[in-house]
Sequence to fold (131 residues):
Amino acid sequence: MVFEIDFNSNEAFYIQLCNQIILGIATDAFSEGDPLPSVRALAEQIGINMHTVNKAYSLLRQEGFVRVDRRRGAVISLDADKLQAVKEMRRELSVSLARGICHGISREEAHQMVDEIYNLFLSKNDSLEQE
Fold:
């Protein structure tokens, strides 16, 4: 899979990279056990800082998409339930985004909406964990 960063996008580079890897998993471009390029190699390939790639890999590890193997580096690690959830969410978001585009909602407005909703869920989860 070829990774590409949109340097003109308002979306952070590490988020772009995470999304491409998750989409690769959802579209079967990646399978369980497939190795990802080393942090250094991928940073050089797509022209970004190694720390940015490392941040993306760390986030993917936290979310259960990647595990780190000392000998093989970052490796795709799939949880079947999570993979199904990603496919369903992608399908649902595709319809929602298409409707928004039909109504003139911009990419920036859609991103802002997703961030607001996501942060709302995070704050609710944090509140529940503190109780």
